[in-house]
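tool_call: predict_structure(chain=1)
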Amino acid sequence: MCRYYRLSMTIRNRTSEYQQCT
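tool_result:
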């Protein structure tokens, strides 16, 4: 099962996107 994560960094005002499969 894979999940799509989106992390929003307010420090650098950047969005990091990555997938995590378990």
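agent: The two ends are 6 Å apart (CA to CA). Proceeding to next step.
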